[in-house]
Amino acid sequence: MRAGVGVTVVRELRRMTAARAAARPAPPPDERCDLCGGAVAADHRHLLQLERREILCSCESCFALRAGEPEFRPTGRRVLWLERFLLPDELWAGFRIPIGLAFLFRSSASGGIVAFYPSPAGATESELELARWDELSAANPVLETLETDAEGLIVNRLVEPPQAAIAPIDRCYALVGLVKSHWEGINGGSGLKHTIAGFFDDLREESAP
Q1: C-beta separation of 200 from 183 below 8 A
Q2: What's the Cα-to-Cα distance from 206 to each of 46, 80, 209, rounded to whole Å?
Q3: Three-state secondary structure call for residue 60
Q4: How many alpha carbons fall within 13 Å on the CB side of residue 199?
Q5: Cβ-proximal residues to 121 (8 Å cutoff; 6+ apart), any chain
Q6: Which of 97, 116, 133, 151 has its CA 20 to 30 A from that of 176?
Q7: pLDDT in tens, 50-68
Q8: Are 118 and 180 in contact (CB under 8 A)?
Q9: Which of 171-178's residues contact partners 24+ apart within 8 Å by CB, and which partners?
Q10: How far is CA 86 from CA 21, 79, 102, 205, 209, in A?
Q11: What tens digit of pLDDT does each residue of 167-185 get?
Q12: What's the confidence (pLDDT) of residue 142?
């Protein structure tokens, strides 16, 4: 190979390498602990601030130090897909949740059952009648194992058959964030349907055996 040709080839290879590097998406910014500001791993833990119902990213040190404080609660860890979940239409109507997508949980702050449903603006809160929840628990005894504040029941009645799962409360709020960030137009757009389907597919795959 002539020297001039060799230099040209090297330059071209460098140009292609630089172009590929520029085309790669930029790495996400480093996540930080919401309590101390330190760096956290990608699979870091979360704490729920009970009064504000705020999910906080936590490093291992802050999690160990503050998880037992009265104002915080560790988020749950289990994912349980409810294959034979019973929720008749008339019982769902009694909850007065205007859409077919919501998560419900026991709240120590309110002393009752709280439901959140997603919207383009974020999460909308609705307190439920305890008698209705007791009726739902009687039909589905697994709900008696729901950990207060830390876990939620996620219900998706936008598909047939409807879907339900018990999930960590941070995953419940993540669904609200997904809906808000993917909402398009008046009715959410076609992409939102696929986003929600993917979220529930992931829950099914992660479900404890």
Answers
A1: no
A2: 18, 8, 9
A3: helix
A4: 24
A5: 180
A6: 133
A7: 888 788 999 999 999 998 8
A8: yes
A9: 171/79, 171/203, 172/103, 172/105, 172/116, 173/55, 173/116, 173/123, 174/199, 175/101, 175/103, 175/118, 175/199, 176/116, 176/118, 176/122, 176/123, 178/118
A10: 51, 18, 15, 21, 20
A11: 999 999 888 888 877 777 6
A12: 96
Residue 155 in contact with residue 104, Cβ under 8 Å? yes
Largest CA distance in the chain: 87
41 burial type by CB count under 10 A (0-12 exposed, 13-18 middle, 19+ buried): exposed
Q: Which two tokens stand for residue 131?
A: 């008698």
- 133 phi, psi to nearest 5 deg: -65, -40
Q: Closest Cα to residue 150, out of 60, 45, 64, 59?
A: 45
Asked if residue 141 has a cis previous peptide bond (ω within 30° of 0), the answer is no
For the sheet with 151-156, list strands across it. Answer: 80-81, 163-168, 151-156, 101-107, 112-119, 122-127
Token pair recorded at residue 30: 């480093």
pLDDT at site 11? 54
The position carrying tokens 């099914």 is: 204
Residues of the chain with pLDDT under 50: 1-3, 5-7, 9-10, 12-13, 16-17, 19-28
Token output for 35: 């309590």
